[in-house]
Known about the structure:
Order of helices and strands: EEEEH
Largest sheet: 4 strands, antiparallel
Radius of gyration: 13 Å
Distance between the termini: 29 Å
Number of helices: 1
Shape: globular
Helix content: 10-25%
Strand order of the largest sheet: 1-2-3-4
Amino acid sequence: MKILEIKNVTxxxxxxxYRRLYSxxxxxxxxxxxxxxxxxxxxxxxxxxxxxxxxxxxxPPDYPLVPLVKEIKKFIDIMDLKGGFPV
Length: 87
């Protein structure tokens, strides 16, 4: 399993300044087969300074979700640090 990209990222309007909600399409390579899955992403900054990332699949893949969500969270964290998400 490999996360290739998250494309068509759009930010949803939320009046809470420490929470950002996005929707997009995750492009994932599963067993030599590239597939796209719509995802909803929530990035929340806690008062302690840590960042909490939540990922929800609109159509869950036929693959174990725990390792998949873990890898997507890592990918989103790196993408967010590089400025890949709209502010």
